[in-house]
Amino acid sequence: MAAEVPWVDSLEQVYGDGTPNGIPSEYRQRFGNLVKTFEREYDQKPDFVSRSPGRVNLIGEHIDYSLYNVLPTAVVNDVLIAVQVVESGEPKFSIANVNSSKYPKEEAIIPKSGEVTIDKQNHKWSNYFLAGVSGSLQTLRKKHGDNFVPKGMKLLIDGNVPAGGGLSSSAAFVCASALAVMAANGLRVTKQDLLDECIVSERSVGVYSGGMDQAASIFSERGYLLYCQFWPKFAAEHVPVPQADPEFTILVAQSFVTSDKAVTAPKHYNLRVVEVTLASVVLAKLFDIALNPDHSSLGFSLRNFQEEVMKKDGKLEETMKYQVDAVIDIVKSRLDKDAYTREEIAKILEISVENLEKEYMSKFPVQADSFKLRQRALHVFEEARRVLAFRQTLSQSSTLDKEKLLRLGDLMNQTQESCAKTYECSCPEIDDMCSIARKSGAYGSRLTGAGWGGCTVHLVPQDKVDAVQEALKKEYYYKKFPKITAETLKEAIVISKPGQGSSVIHGNALSV
């Protein structure tokens, strides 16, 4: 039976590190402030708190929606939703935020149809909550029937995952929201069911993610990386981080260049989804292969093409590395143009431009005159190969020596190079931060998240952490943001440990 999302009655089970005083005081204070603010807002204590964390991806950038493996982990930063269930009256949600000046209180009534409509053109903060509501109501109706009437809820939300910062605040928000609705209606949901729902839910706000963000938020466990596999179906393996000599640290640094995926998607994130999908169907057509639809964002993925072309060539028994190397050679030899117009792609596929746009560009708007199929496919296959090498290096022995750490760092550096030049999802600020960190002693530095801003992740020897932090402050933050406050600067750099995934916090934990 699939594991359920845990219900916990102690903050140690969420934020602790196994030591007697393992919870940093700021986490206790923040949680206590949430509960007390809820009492002031609604004159009663919450019944429970739904929680989902952000995530950092060590390697495997922009390949989950092509159904290739990735290696993320949850961070401590999270979205907390305090909930009081309203048993009677018209089902509605009262949605407040601890930062009420920035995020004003709203109310939403659930129509009798049970269908929640989200205005994608109006990018309100509450849209992500409603996205979680939409998917969870569908799940609840499947379980209880079409006559199911959801309970009303009073909610207070507190999120410290930076919006647009590359730690996947949107996935954390959607996952926590969906979990809150299902918990309020008495459903103990499995991690797999929550994942399946949240991937679809986030697409209702116009973001066609591949599932890595939600998987890391839901499935992660403290002290482990999460090896996520998406083909032929999702599977998660908890990978222990070996002891290292010398010791190292994962350092996450904000660029403060924000990239709201829901706003910039037509020319950034969703455009890449279209490009890799078109690359898969064009390659299949060139090899006279009929792809069966898969569960990727637009129904056809590069992983799907790899499977079918290897099957056709009788090479499915070869190693994954052999297969990926083979499709890299195919891309280099068969996709020979720097960019393809709609007309050129339609001609290859033997369909009209109108049908091309209807089949591959109608789910969401795309702003592009041409499509870089070769470059995008090369990034996906080469990044998939880097993930295999990273995972192999972690599993070679119980200890990571300096040679292995340098190897891991080099793979991260290669990812950044590809993100900047081949997939074109970096930005000058991210490139600058990575260069500064490497010069100051980081083994490896790269963007993490959707890109075009957001966060960087760095593999840093323990004895170089201070040097890297000071260099980033002096050469990036103080130069780019001369008026940056000490509080903002403190939040800019996070020393991350693999964190705990989604949970419902109740019972004694609310006695603060």
From TrEMBL:
| Keyword Iron assigned | no
Q: Which residues form the GHMP kinase N-terminal domain?
A: 136-220
PANTHER family, per the entry: GALACTOKINASE-RELATED, MEVALONATE KINASE/GALACTOKINASE
Question: Mind naming one GO cellular-component term on file for this protein?
Answer: cytosol
What family does the entry list? Answer: Belongs to the GHMP kinase family. GalK subfamily.
Highest taxon in the source lineage: Eukaryota
Its catalytic activity? alpha-D-galactose + ATP = alpha-D-galactose 1-phosphate + ADP + H(+)
Task: Return the broad EC class.
Answer: transferase
Give the protein's recorded name: Galactokinase
The UniProt entry, under SUPFAM superfamilies, shows:
GHMP Kinase, C-terminal domain, Ribosomal protein S5 domain 2-like
- Keyword Hydrolase belongs to the record: no
The alphabetized UniProt keywords are:
ATP-binding, Carbohydrate metabolism, Galactose metabolism, Kinase, Lipid biosynthesis, Lipid metabolism, Nucleotide-binding, Steroid biosynthesis, Steroid metabolism, Sterol biosynthesis, Sterol metabolism, Transferase
Q: Which residues form the Galactokinase N-terminal domain?
A: 36-84
Query: InterPro entries this protein is in?
Result: Galactokinase, Galactokinase_CS, GalKase_N, GHMP_kinase_C_dom, GHMP_kinase_C_sf, GHMP_kinase_N_dom, GHMP_knse_ATP-bd_CS, Mevalonate/galactokinase
Which residue intervals define the domain GHMP kinase C-terminal in the entry?
Answer: 403-477
Which PROSITE patterns would you find in this protein's record? GALACTOKINASE, GHMP_KINASES_ATP
- Organism this protein belongs to: Cyphellophora europaea (strain CBS 101466) (Phialophora europaea)
NCBIfam families for the chain: gal_kin
> Which GO biological process annotations does it have?
galactose metabolic process; positive regulation of transcription by galactose; sterol biosynthetic process
The cross-references to Gene3D superfamilies, in alphabetical order and at most eight, read: 1.20.1440.340, 3.30.230.10, 3.30.70.3170
Question: From the Swiss-Prot or TrEMBL record, what is one GO molecular function term?
Answer: ATP binding
- What pathway, per the record? Carbohydrate metabolism; galactose metabolism
Enzyme Commission identifier(s): 2.7.1.6
